[in-house]
Design goal:
The chain is α+β, with helices and mostly antiparallel strands. The protein has 4 helices and 3 strands, in the order ααβββαα. It is globular.
């Protein structure tokens, strides 16, 4: 999905915040929401693929002006519920 015109940190934070922790027993699981500043820090570290962040399954690649959510058949929505389609979450940022 093209995210030109969106702030990448805002996109990453929105995708993270729409998910639930995979398992409360997972080390590093953190129930609090991700801020744009935290997302920006992850992106500035050079990381582009986010499989699991703080115990939440994301499986998204943010590269350039694109977000890919369907890598290796590990769709974002497959892990986070069919109602959580990444495109809807990103589109809601426009409002």
């Amino acid at each position: 999905m093209n995210i030109q015109g969106y702030e990448k940190a805002e996109v990453l934070a929105a995708l993270f915040n729409a998910t639930e922790p995979e398992d409360s027993r997972v080390a590093g699981e953190d129930p609090k929401q991700m801020t744009k500043e935290e997302a920006r820090s992850l992106l500035e570290s050079g990381q582009t693929y986010f499989e699991m962040v703080r115990g939440r399954v994301l499986k998204v690649l943010i590269l350039g002006n694109e977000v890919e959510t369907c890598l290796f058949n590990n769709h974002y929505h497959r892990w986070n519920g069919k109602s959580l389609v990444a495109e809807k979450i990103i589109e809601s940022l426009r409002r």
